[in-house]
Amino acid sequence: QVQLVESGGGLVQPGGSLRLSCAASGFTLDYYAIGWFRQAPGKEREGVSCSSTNHNNTYYADSVKGRYGITRDNAKNTVYLQMNNLQPQDTAVYYCAAAKVYYSCDYDVFDYWGQGTQVTVSS
Fold first, then answer.
1. Closest to 33 measured CA to CA, from 82, 72, 83
2. Can you give the pLDDT at residue 53?
3. What whole-number distance in Å separates Cα of residue 120 and Cα of residue 123?
4. How far, in whole angstroms, is CA 98 from its chain's centroid?
5. For the chain, N or C: smaller number of CB within 10 Å?
6. Pick from 96, 69, 71: which is nearest to 83 by CA?
């Protein structure tokens, strides 16, 4: 059974950091592009960061460039999103996703999705 399970969300003060994890099971993450998306209340789901299979094509949304970092540990079949200097506008449900064929960090490119983890940035 194919599954992606996110963890690491929570409440953090502005300027703080969080690291999200996404554990994959039922398939080998090595062969998939990976992505992190987020959706705030009343807004569309947006691509935050995506990375191709061999990690030589990595995308960051302008709003997170310089603050977020996407990595993967293929031995653990896990993807991470390091988020630094978090701001209230980063508050959203964050989703990880995997794509067999990757050409852009867009919602409809990705095949498998996790259930999401809430990130709230507030003082």
1. 72
2. 85
3. 10
4. 10
5. N
6. 69
